[in-house]
Structure formats: C-alpha cells, structure tokens
Amino acid sequence: MKGWFSMDKIYGVMIVGTGWVSGEHIRAFSMNPYSKVVALVSRSEEKGRTKALECGVPDARVYTTIDEGLKDPDVDIVCICTPNHLHAEQTIKAAKAGKHILIEKPIALNWDDAKAMKAAVDEAGVKTLVGYVLHWNPLFLTAKKLQQQYLGNLYYAETDYFHRVTESYPCYSWTCQKGVGGSSLLAGGCHAVDAMRQFMKSEVVEVTAYTSGCRKDLEFDGTLVMILKFANGAMAKIGSSYDTISPYIFNLHLYGDKGTLLNNKLYSPEEIPGQLDYMEIPVTTPDSGDVTHHPFPQEIDHFIDCIRNDKETEVSLADAMKTQAIVFAADKSAAEGHPVKLPLD
C-alpha cells in the first residue's frame, strides 16, 4: 500500500468501543504527533458522541458498526477496546480491510479464534500490538535493565494478579461472565502470564493448574494457580484471583543465580558489596487496576514508531499467541485435572 509507512504521515485512528479503557487510548493516540483519532465505533451513536466530547476529539466521526467504520478512507489504525468475546471477529475484519490493529487483551476466548486472527493478520501484512501495557511500566523497564547484572539466570519466578472485581469496577457487568470475559485468568491474569514471559529466557513446555472459588456472582472459579515448566528446566508459579479480599496486588518476584527481585526490592550481594538486606528501588510499580494508572502513552508511542519505521512491535499478535496458549493450557489443565503440554496444536 503506497505511503503506508510514510515518515510524515499522520495516521488516522478508529477506536472500537466506548467503555472505560477506550478513553485512555483516545488520549494516548491524541498525544502522539503522528496519530489522530478520526472515528469511534459505538452501538449507541449518542454514547459515541458523548465519549468523543469527553476525550477531546469532538470532530471524530461516530459509527454504529465496525463495518461502517472500516469503509472510512481516513482510518489507518483500528484500536479494539470491546468486550473480550468480540476481539476475534473485529480483528479479522480490520485485518481484511488492511488496517493496523491494536487489540486489547486477551486476544480471544479460544485457541481456534486466536489462530484465525493470526492467519488474517499474516495474510494482510498489517502491524499489530496487543494491549499488555505493563511492558512500559517503570518497574518492568527497570527490572529488565537489572536482570543480567544483578539477577543473572532465573531458575524460579512468581507473578500474581489479585484483583477483587466487584460492582464498582467499570467492566464488572461483562468481565464476570464466562462467555464474555472468559475467566479471571483470561480477563486479567493474562497480564501476569505476559509478565512472566518477559523475563524468563525460555519457552513453557508444560502447564499444571488448579482452580477454586468462593463467589456466587462469577460464572467461573474466581481463583487459579498454575505451575509452569520451562524448556531450560526453570519453573514458575502464577496466581490469578477475583476472590481476594485485598487491595489490588500485582507481584513480580524473580529468583536468579546472582540475586532476587521482589517487586521493587533487590538483593544481589555479589554485585552490591556489603549488602545486608533488600534495597528498595524508588520506582512506580503496577499496583493498581485503574486504567488511568497504566502507561498507555508509552505503549502508543511504541506502536506508532513501529508503524512509521516498518518494525515489528514488542507485543505483536504472534508474540501474544504464546501468552494466550499458556492461558488456554492452564484453563484446560484445571478443567480436566492433568498437566497440558505446549505448544498447542
């Protein structure tokens, strides 16, 4: 497509969905000098218009279906911010229309849909970014810089997503439904799976998982724990829970042959002579489920830079498929009561 990767082009963005997270995407795309929100898709034209005004894009066109919006010649990028069960169909439509695509996590609710999405994206040759926004969280960026020197080779790690989603949470009405949200792991705990993959220098070969739950308002068990076995012999544990009676918790615990990182606390006595206890790193941590707390501008800057310079994104659909496979393997293991091998067919 001529001019697709033009360095001076302003890329037109269409936001699909007008819920909570869409506002952060609108603001982030509006902040980037090479993108402009030109359209929104909402089932309600009135709601779409209200969202456009609230987020400072009053001139954005409002469509009531994605099919209408994909006909807009000014749309170069489609940002999918709809409930989870709609991601697959909308991604495939956007790919077939030749649009670059940002897909909020999770990419899909089943493996067949995920594979169909990848096939459509591969055929279209469009850029993709999956919304694992914690890649740009300051703790994660800092930990990546520290890993080689202060942690060394990781032999064990733990990540946790503990978030009591209740009626006060903006996505509560659908995220607790199995056919829409999927599970606590699919809807939110997938962030913990993606976090694990960022730091372990090996692929997962086996997943064993168990679930339990104590809430009656969920259509799935609210708590899941999984054990991961990696090709290089390392191990990991991931927890995901909507049951927890606690403020939001996201743990990143990394254990290496040189040192240990417990969230923002580092212990590496070989590299820090005289260290007697953990030292605290003054850095922002992923300690909130509020989307306004997340680094969306940095995520969008990365996406636009990759489009402009014809580079693969850090969290492309192809990469996110590996995270998704672990999620599906964990849910399968818990449901069937046995370990599940990876990769999936």
From TrEMBL:
Every Gfo/Idh/MocA-like oxidoreductase C-terminal domain range: 144-342
Single GO MF annotation: nucleotide binding
Domain of life from the UniProt record: Bacteria
Domain annotation Gfo/Idh/MocA-like oxidoreductase N-terminal: ranges: 13-132
UniProtKB keywords: Oxidoreductase
Entries under InterPro entries matching the protein: Gfo/Idh/MocA-like_OxRdtase_C, Gfo/Idh/MocA-like_OxRdtase_N, Gfo/Idh/MocA_oxidrdct_glycsds, NAD(P)-bd_dom_sf
Family: Belongs to the Gfo/Idh/MocA family.
Protein name, entry field: Gfo/Idh/MocA family oxidoreductase
Organism: Lawsonibacter hominis
